[in-house]
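Work package 3, deliverable 3.1, input record:
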Amino acid sequence: MSRVPFLDVVDRTFEGKYMPQEDFDMKVFVPELRKVIEKYKIKYDSQKLIPDDDDLADRIFQAGMEFYQNVGTYCVDTERVIRFTEKEILEALHTAPDKVAFGQGRDLRWLKSRTPESGTPPFCFLGAVGMPVSSDDIFVNLIQAFSECDLTDTITMPSLTHINGRTVRPNSPFEVMAAIRSARLFKEGTARAGRPGIAAMNAIACASSDVAKIAGSHYLRPTDGWMIGSTAELKVETPRFNEIAFVRDIGGRILAETTPLFGGFCGGPEGVAVASVAYHLHGLLVLRGDCQLHCPLHLKFVCATAPPVLWALSAGAQAITRNSHSPIMISPFLAAGAMEEMCFLEATAAVTAIVVSGSNLEAQVTYGGATPDLTGPLTPRFSAEVAHATAGMTRKEANDIVLKLVDQFKADLGKAPAGKRYQEAYDMKTGKPLPETLEKYEKMKKKIGEMGIPFKI
Amino acid sequence: MGDQELFKKMSQAIIELDKDAAVAAAQEAVSVGMSPLKAIEKGLQPGIQTVGERFEAFECFLPELIGAAEAFKAAMDVLEPIIAKMGENQDSNGTVIMGTVKGDIHKLGKDIVVLLLKTRGFNVIDLGEDISASDFMRAAQKYNADIIGLSALLNTTMPAQQEVVSLLKEQGIRGNYIIMVGGAPVSQNWADEIGADGYSRTAEEAVNLALDLMKKKAA
C-alpha cells in the first residue's frame, strides 16, 4: 500500500484526458458537485454555523470522495485532467502522516491531526500570512515579534513589496532577489528573538514563480515548510510540480494550500464544504502535501467570516478531521483591518469555528491581505489566544457564541474598515505596540471574554 | 404572440439559463419581423441584467452567471447576422480590453468582470491571462478601445499593472485610454500611485466605475 508515486502524477498531466478549461469548469466540476450535494442531502443551516451533526460531516466526506474521484485535478498548462481511482485515493488517505515536525532544537514543534471538540490545543502557525510590507525594517520587526510570542509554533512570513527602493516585479531578478532576502531577513528576525530554530512555513511568500521560490530556499532548512498552492477550482500549474520536485529532493515539508471560493464554481456553502474534502485529497495526491492549509473565501468580501463561509469552513473541516488523519490548518481571512473592533470579533468567530471543528490554525490575514503594512503581531497573537481558549469547547457552545459575534459584524462585511498600518500602531525602533494599541487589545480581549471565550489569563 | 410576450419569453430564457429556449425565442423574433435591436434591448438585456443583479446579491453564483451569458450569446448568434445585414449598429457603452497581467495566471475575478461588463452593454475583448504590457497596448490600438482593464491577483504581479501605464505614457498614447485596475491585492492607493484612472474592489463596482468613467469621457 502506497501513495501514487509523484512521477506517475506528473505522467498524468501529459497523458490524462484532454479537456478545454471551460469544459472542466462547467461540464464536469459544476454538475458533478451539484450531483453529490443532492445525493448526500447536504444542506446549509444559517442557525448552525458550527454544525454538530456527525452524520452530516461524514456525508460531506463521502460526497467529497465521490466528487474528487469523478472530477480529478485540472492541469492548466497541459489542459489535461489528472484522475485517481478510489483505491488510489483510499491508499493516499491511509498512508498520509498524522503528524509532521517543523523547526529545530527547542523550537521543534509537531503539527498533529485533531478531531472536532478535541481538548488538544491547536498548532498555531502565526504571522503575516504573506501580507505585503514595504521595508526590510518592518519585515524583521514583525518576524522578531512573531517569534517572541510563545504561542507561535511556526511563522508565516510577510511579502516584501520593494528591495532597495525597487518594486518587486514578477518573473524578474527583483522577485528572485526579494525571495532570497526574505529568507535571510527571516533568519535575522528569529535570531533576534532567540528562537533560531523556529520554522518558516510559507516559504517564500513574495515568490510567485518557481524560480524565485527555489532560489530563496537556499537560505531555508528542510525543517521549514514550503507552501504549494493550487488555483480555484481544483487546478494546478506546471511550475508547482517543479517546486514539488525540488522540495522532495531536499527532504522539505510541503503544505498543500487550497482556496475554495464561495460564490464561484463551488456555488454556495454546501459546494464549498464538499470541495474542501476534494481539495484535501488533491492536496495529498497532486500537491504531495505533508499537511494541508485550507483558505475558504467569500468571492466578493474576500473573507471567511460571512455566515455561509463559516458554515462551509466548519462543516468541511469536521468532514475531513473525522475521516482523515492528515493534519489540516485553516487560514481565516478577515474583512476588517488590524486592530479594528470588527477584526477582533471576526477573528474570534472564525478561530472558534476552526478549533472546535478539529482544525489547526494559520493567522492572521486582515483586510483581505492586500494593502502594504496593514499588519502587526498583536492580531495573530489574539487569534492564538482564542484558539487555545476554545480547545475542548463543544460545537454547540461554540455555535451560540459565534452566532452572537456574527450578528455584530455581518452587515459590515462589504464596508469593513482598513485598520492601522504597522507604523501607526507600533514603535518602529523597538517593535513594541504603542500604548493605545495595547490598550485596545486588552479592551477587546475583555469584551470578548465577557461574551463567553474562556481566555486562560 | 405580441411583442411584450416575446420580450418576456426571451428574458425568461436567459434567467432560466435555457440556451435552447433563448435561441428559439430569438428565432421567433426574427420570424415575426421584430427589430433585432429591440429584441436585444427589451428581451435579452433585461434577462441578463436580472441574472447579473442576482449574482451581485449572491442570490445565485458564478455557474448561473456563466449559464446566462451562454444563453445570451446563443440568442445573439441568431440576431447578429440580421443586424449586420441591416447595417445597423447596436448601441455599445464602449470597448474594453481586459486581461490578467504578465506573470499572473488567475482568471476567475477577471472573467466575472468580463461577464458583468457584457451584461451592461460593453463590447469586451478578453485577452486572457499572463498578458504583457505590449500585448495590452497592441490590442487597445487594434480595437480602438475606450478602456483597458488590468487584473492582478498577487502582490507580486501588481507591478505589471504599472508597466502597462508606463508603456502607454512612453508611447505618448496614455491619454487615449481609460485604465482601470483590480484584483485582490490592488487598492485605491495603488491605482493613484501608478496613475490609473480607476480602481474597484468588486466586480459590480468595476462595472459601475466603467460606466461612470465613460460618461466623464463623453462629457
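The longest helix of chain A spans residues 173-192.
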